[in-house]
């Protein structure tokens, strides 16, 4: 009897408030468990942000009341690329005095394949000028091949995931 994806979800460890690390390890686990393709080709990571990084901060700090109805941008990164190049040393999880805002995971921070130790800001910094103009072969190729994936608006996000990659 096959186990559904929902049944697998309860088997994933996660650390509250460390969303990026949780996504990183979830991608790896989905492949290891056979829920996703072993080469991770069917997985994508989506960052939500805007020019002021308000959408990102609102998702991260759910207790704060920030208008999420403003303009949101999305950065889509193909999981195989994300798992090679994402780096996170947890620096944004400390207050100005250097104290942890939330208890960090017990494992070491994520270091990228190129030995970068922190590039979260590169993923969540999305400007209007970064937004792709249409969802076509060039955009699909960018998502699959660019270190930081491709930035798009909400309509393009829906179009990207509703179209078959084979159409391009």
TrEMBL record:
As recorded in UniProt, its EC number(s) are 3.5.1.122
Sorted alphabetically, the keyword list is: Hydrolase
What family, per the record?
A: Belongs to the NTAQ1 family.
Q: What is this protein called?
A: Protein N-terminal glutamine amidohydrolase
**Lineage top rank: taxon:** Eukaryota
Q: Which GO terms describe its molecular function?
A: protein-N-terminal asparagine amidohydrolase activity; protein-N-terminal glutamine amidohydrolase activity
Domain Protein N-terminal glutamine amidohydrolase alpha beta roll: where? Answer: 14-55, 71-161
Q: What does this protein do?
A: Mediates the side-chain deamidation of N-terminal glutamine residues to glutamate, an important step in N-end rule pathway of protein degradation. Conversion of the resulting N-terminal glutamine to glutamate renders the protein susceptible to arginylation, polyubiquitination and degradation as specified by the N-end rule. Does not act on substrates with internal or C-terminal glutamine and does not act on non-glutamine residues in any position.
Can you list the GO cellular component terms from the UniProt entry? cytosol; nucleus
Q: How does it assemble?
A: Monomer.
The yes or no answer to whether the keyword GTP-binding is present is no
Question: What is catalysed by this protein?
Answer: N-terminal L-glutaminyl-[protein] + H2O = N-terminal L-glutamyl-[protein] + NH4(+)
For whether the record's keyword set contains Hydrolase, the answer is yes
């Amino acid at each position: 009897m096959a186990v559904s994806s929902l049944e697998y979800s309860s088997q994933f460890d996660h650390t509250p408030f460390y969303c990026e690390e949780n996504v990183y390890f979830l991608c790896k686990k989905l492949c290891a468990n056979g829920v996703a393709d072993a080469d991770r080709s069917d997985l994508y990571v989506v960052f939500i942000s805007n020019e002021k990084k308000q959408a990102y901060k609102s998702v991260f700090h759910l207790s704060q009341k920030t208008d999420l109805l403003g303009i949101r941008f999305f950065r889509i990164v193909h999981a195989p690329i994300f798992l090679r190049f994402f780096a996170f040393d947890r620096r944004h999880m400390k207050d100005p005095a250097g104290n942890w805002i939330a208890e960090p995971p017990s494992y070491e921070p994520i270091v990228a394949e190129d030995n970068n130790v922190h590039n979260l800001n590169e993923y969540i910094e999305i400007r209007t000028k970064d937004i792709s103009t249409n969802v076509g072969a060039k955009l699909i190729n960018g998502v699959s091949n660019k270190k930081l994936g491709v930035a798009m608006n909400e309509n393009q996000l829906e179009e990207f995931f509703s179209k078959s990659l084979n159409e391009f």
